[in-house]
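Example S7 (structure tokens).
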């Protein structure tokens, strides 16, 4: 006992505890948005351990637990400013009292690598912007297991640059002033706690980090609005209305489901008279196609075998038809298809294209030539080329419009789909839809060994001269460990070359989707020839988004949507449900498992089974990524009327077999566009489900998207009944439970939503 007392006395005698007060003066806002008053509070700090305490309305809490004691020098207290130096750590600390918060700055005073860890946080629960947002009780066993010894790169893991901690009587909100080079290290030995770590890289001249700390009521709305008001104050928030004033095509996103459209057939089954084909297929042409399949097409041997089956059986079965259609579609995309010994019946259009030289043709012209060549040999065995693949493409688009889908965002897996069927892009644009291609500049593969199109660049010097090196001198691997990461500050000439070459074919794309640019997967590049900081990496990504937006008038979206991109993008995929199948072998690799997500393969040239196959999801992943008990709309409370967000494309609305109704409820509650993968077969299969849901969701979303999300409430003890509010007169009550729930004079059935629009009330029960 005496030993403990003496230690306490030493601490008290050796520690200078400094105090300050934070007032509640009002600050004018640049925009008319929801204002939530932050709480008045006093604070005290112990410089030796950097223990930071706050006191509001008689309740004192720690904003940071004590660190190990450090030697303090240059201690100053000038009233509104408190500052000191940790000489051994080469750090200067400055704390300034402001109107509604405390501003804390940590500055490294040395040029070499440096690191500092603060704050060290404990609480009853955490409000973290993990994707859309999560409320995580500190004693929750599922999250304790998931976060055990986890280290998160903050700009990548957090969709917004803040976090909040629930204490007994109020919440503490920490706004991160420098978003770069930060990690959070979790400790779950007892209850969940974590430490915030900032690295000061030697290559970065920015030597400051820090926080604003606010106190709010224990309410996610107050937490999120505190951050939103900060963004507005900094000039870092831009509404969809403002974006649409620059590009009115953005309004086509309002009430628009998101659809990935899949079809790689140059010619479809309906375009071939199969009985005639058996007897009228020129041998030279057949042998030439088989040779091309064997030498130029991946897995071509299986497709080539279809031609033997065509001869061996009286009846052409569905399997053989699929293989022949896929094989013809594959070879008609090849420059090598033209062969003077095979194609001898050249008309004027063929001759005109050949005279331009095969190597000079753009991809649309090449496929057009190859269509005409095949038609010249097969004659009336096949339809006129103008009708090829219409049943797979144009007819589906027309039927979507005719069925009531007024607005759509349509994404293509890559631009080659547009080259194959330009009429698809033209028809979608004519129907008033947004249509765009997937694109990526994140990974680059070794020249001549490219495994996918976006990792191939005409400038072959980039692989050696423009890729990212880590601090240990090693090149950072590309996606799935293949190739390398391309430094975005050196990629713009290739961006311009690729985009221009695609659009110069005449394809009227009006949208563009940039993979990974909004995910926060950014890097310091230590290459001596092109040293680059994380901040410069981000700015280069924003620059290429702006290039597509400003130079080409594209409605730009990205994977991730983390908020450094919010002023440039209009939509994002991944905020609502991220990619997580890589976390479990049963989902990602075990093809015998019920949980296996499926192959990136389609037997018909349409939707790969990775997207079309419905699967269950293990309970632990449901809790982490889907459970309404944990999800809170932090992102929507900030960005509902700025960035339209939906799922990562691998977890579309219909993917998780036993969660479809819940996801439909969620889409209305959180104003989230449904996301589907469609070809002519999937459209026929799910048409009624898509149309019935879209009628309700689209009508609601066209109004909600123009408003700020103004409120969010939990209405039941089990958290299964929740409410959101948009503007002043539009709100939704979602009942995720199986039981009826009474609210505002209405009885909302289980698995249903109540939409309140002024004096109008609508109950909707989704059906899959």
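Recovered sequence:
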């Amino acid at each position: 006992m005496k030993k403990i007392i003496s230690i306490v006395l030493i601490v008290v005698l050796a520690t200078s505890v400094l105090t300050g007060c934070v007032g509640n003066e009002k600050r004018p806002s640049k925009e008319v948005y929801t204002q939530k008053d932050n709480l008045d509070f006093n604070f005290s700090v112990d410089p030796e351990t950097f223990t930071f305490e706050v006191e509001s309305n008689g309740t004192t809490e720690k904003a940071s637990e004590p660190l190990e004691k450090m030697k303090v020098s240059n201690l100053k207290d000038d009233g509104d400013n408190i500052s000191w130096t940790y000489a051994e750590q080469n750090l200067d600390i400055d704390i300034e009292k402001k109107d509604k918060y405390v501003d804390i700055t940590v500055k490294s005073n040395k040029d070499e690598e440096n690191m500092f860890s603060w704050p060290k946080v404990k609480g009853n629960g955490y409000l973290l912007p993990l994707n859309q947002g999560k409320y995580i009780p500190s004693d929750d066993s599922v999250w304790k297991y998931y976060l055990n010894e986890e280290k998160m790169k903050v700009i990548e893991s957090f969709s917004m640059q803040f976090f909040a901690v629930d204490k007994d009587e109020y919440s503490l909100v920490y706004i991160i002033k420098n978003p770069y080079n930060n990690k959070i290290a979790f400790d779950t030995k007892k209850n969940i706690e974590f430490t915030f770590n900032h690295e000061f890289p030697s290559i970065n001249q920015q030597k400051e980090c820090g926080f604003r700390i606010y106190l709010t009521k224990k309410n996610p709305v107050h937490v999120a609005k505190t951050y939103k008001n900060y963004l507005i104050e900094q000039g870092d928030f831009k509404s969809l209305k403002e974006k649409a004033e620059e590009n009115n095509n953005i309004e086509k996103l309002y009430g628009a489901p998101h659809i990935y459209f899949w079809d790689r057939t140059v010619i479809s089954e309906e375009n071939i008279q199969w009985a005639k084909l058996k007897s009228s297929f020129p041998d030279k042409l057949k042998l030439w196609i088989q040779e091309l399949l064997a030498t130029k097409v991946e897995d071509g041997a299986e497709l080539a075998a279809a031609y033997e089956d065509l001869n061996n059986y009286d009846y052409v079965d569905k399997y053989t038809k699929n293989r022949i259609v896929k094989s013809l579609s594959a070879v008609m995309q090849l420059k090598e298809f033209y062969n003077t010994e095979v194609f001898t019946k050249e008309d004027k259009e063929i001759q005109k294209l050949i005279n331009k030289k095969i190597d000079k043709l753009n991809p649309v012209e090449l496929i057009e030539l190859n269509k005409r060549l095949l038609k010249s040999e097969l004659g009336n065995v096949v339809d006129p080329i103008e009708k090829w693949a219409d049943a797979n493409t144009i007819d589906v688009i027309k039927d979507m419009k005719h069925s009531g889908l007024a607005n759509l965002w349509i994404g293509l897996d890559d631009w080659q789909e547009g080259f194959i069927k330009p009429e698809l892009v033209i028809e979608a644009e004519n129907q008033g839809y947004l249509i765009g291609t997937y694109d990526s500049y994140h990974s680059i593969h070794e020249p001549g060994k490219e495994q996918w199109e976006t990792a191939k660049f005409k400038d072959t010097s980039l692989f050696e001269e423009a890729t990212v090196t880590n601090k240990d001198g090693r090149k950072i691997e590309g996606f799935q460990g293949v190739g390398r990461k391309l430094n975005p500050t050196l990629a713009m000439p290739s961006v311009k070359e690729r985009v221009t070459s695609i659009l110069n074919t005449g394809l009227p794309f009006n949208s563009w989707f940039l993979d990974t640019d909004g995910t926060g997967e950014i890097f310091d590049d230590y290459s001596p020839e092109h040293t680059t900081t994380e901040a410069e990496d981000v700015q280069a990504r924003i620059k290429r988004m702006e290039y597509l937006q400003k130079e080409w008038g594209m409605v730009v979206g990205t994977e991730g949507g983390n908020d450094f991109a919010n002023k440039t993008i209009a939509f994002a995929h991944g905020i609502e449900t991220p990619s997580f199948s890589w976390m479990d072998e049963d989902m990602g690799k075990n093809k015998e498992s019920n949980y296996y997500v499926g192959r990136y393969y389609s037997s018909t040239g349409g939707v790969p089974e990775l997207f079309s196959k419905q699967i269950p999801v293990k309970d632990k992943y449901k809790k982490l990524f889907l459970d309404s008990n944990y999800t809170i709309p932090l992102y929507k409370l900030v960005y509902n009327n700025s960035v339209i967000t939906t799922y990562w494309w691998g977890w579309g609305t219909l993917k998780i077999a036993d969660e479809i109704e819940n996801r439909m409820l969620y889409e209305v509650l959180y104003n989230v566009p449904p996301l589907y993968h469609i070809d002519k077969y999937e459209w026929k299969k799910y048409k009624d489900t898509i149309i019935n849901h879209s009628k309700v969701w689209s009508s609601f979303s066209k109004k909600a998207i123009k408003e700020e999300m103004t409120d969010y409430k939990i209405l039941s003890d089990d958290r299964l009944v929740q409410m959101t509010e948009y503007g002043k007169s539009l709100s939704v009550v979602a009942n995720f439970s199986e039981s009826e729930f009474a609210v505002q004079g209405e009885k909302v059935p289980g698995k249903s939503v109540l939409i309140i629009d002024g004096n109008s009330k609508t109950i909707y029960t989704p059906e899959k």
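Notes on this example. The chain has 23 helices and 34 strands.
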